[in-house]
Automatic annotation (TrEMBL):
Protein name as it appears in the record: tRNA N6-adenosine threonylcarbamoyltransferase
Annotated Pfam families: TsaD
tRNA processing listed as a keyword: yes
Entry-linked HAMAP family: TsaD
Record note on cofactor: Binds 1 Fe(2+) ion per subunit.
Gene: tsaD
Gcp-like domain segment(s): 26-313
Length: 340
């Protein structure tokens, strides 16, 4: 039987990434070009700049990926690409490259949902056991998703306002931490002995989440804090805010995740998205499930941020199910996970 070799492209936000996956298991290439330094001066991702940089970087990253390990591009059997959701211009750059490659190589095209990629990133640890519950936690998404079988998604809980990563970033910015805020909030809150303080607990129905009110409450508190002659808040106070923010934001999410997993009688819980790299989340998620017969999975740290390896994993399952895309496919910046 001919080997399945997927070349995958991810360009939904501020990473230009290429991966090559063989037979759904062997990751031959995983190349990521990040734009974090380019967007720092804006305090967040600037969409127009992201598109320009994708255009500049896509051929370089592709050429680099294909030059590794004496790889023969003629063995590629499928080209996969993130088809949404994401920044409109950024998505189009990746789709243009994927369509060109698929046409040149005369191989099928696969259009992958970005969040499906974050979920299936966990398969770089172990295979899925269905039914399962997935938690997606990132700068743009906070969702609890039920998967009864491969590539079948039912959103059973979601944020009613801000995503957790977005809320982390806004609190971090108010504390004067550099971009990316959520990452730096995590870094300064890791040491032992940091004092925390109580915060109100949002009242949200079902498995839904809410971060906007808690974020606004924290920002108002920070604005009232005493500052030194340079206008800076003392470091120990910043650390206290950072740790308290993490605990209250993550605990809300883990409480809802646990309830959903128990109610749906699942075998596994998986976590995906950029916030799955958060130290507090990674150290506490298994503790929440310690008395349950439910396996908890976290993606490798290298697979928490946007990358093409996760897109290739999801594409592998789509190929098995026969979910291919025409060369006329269009990107969908607001693509719905439940439509997969």
């Amino acid at each position: 039987m001919k080997d399945e070799v997927i070349l995958a492209i991810e360009s939904s936000c501020d990473e230009t990434a290429i991966a090559i996956l063989k037979n759904g298991k062997e990751l031959l290439v995983n190349s990521v070009n990040t734009q974090i330094e380019d967007h720092k001066r804006f305090g967040g991702v600037y969409p127009e700049l992201a598109s320009r940089l994708h255009l500049q970087n896509i051929t370089k990253v592709l050429a680099y990926a294909l030059s590794l390990k004496d790889f023969d591009y003629k063995t590629i059997t499928h080209v996969a690409v993130t088809g949404g959701p994401g920044l409109p211009g950024a998505l189009q750059i990746g789709a243009m490259a994927a369509k060109t490659l698929a046409t040149y190589l005369n191989v099928p095209l696969v259009s992958v949902h970005h969040l499906a990629g974050h979920i299936y990133a966990n398969e770089y640890v172990t295979d899925f056991k269905y039914p399962l519950i997935a938690l997606i936690a990132s700068g743009g998404n906070s969702e609890i998703v039920y998967l009864p079988s491969p590539m079948k998604f039912e959103i059973i809980g979601e944020t009613e306002d801000d995503a957790i990563g977005e809320a982390f970033d806004k609190v971090a910015r108010e504390l004067g931490l550099p971009y990316p805020g959520g990452v730096n909030l995590d870094k300064i809150s890791r040491e032992d002995g940091i004092k925390t303080f109580p915060l109100p607990k949002p009242k949200v129905s079902g498995y839904n989440l809410s971060y906007s009110g808690l974020k606004s409450h924290l920002i108002r508190m920070i604005q009232k804090e005493a500052r030194d002659e340079e206008g800076k808040i003392p470091l120990y106070v910043i650390k206290s805010y950072a740790r308290s923010t993490e605990e209250h934001f993550v605990n809300q999410m883990l409480d809802k995740l646990h309830q959903a997993a128990v109610d749906y009688h699942v075998r596994q819980v998986v976590v995906g998205g950029g916030v799955s790299a958060n130290s507090y989340l990674r150290s506490h998620v298994s503790e929440v499930f310690k008395n349950d017969d439910i396996e908890v999975m976290l993606p490798p740290l290298w697979c928490t941020t946007d990358n093409a390896a996760m897109i290739a994993k999801a594409a592998h399952h789509m190929i098995e199910l026969g979910h291919l895309a025409p060369l006329s496919m269009t990107t969908k910046p607001n693509r719905n996970l439940e439509d997969e």
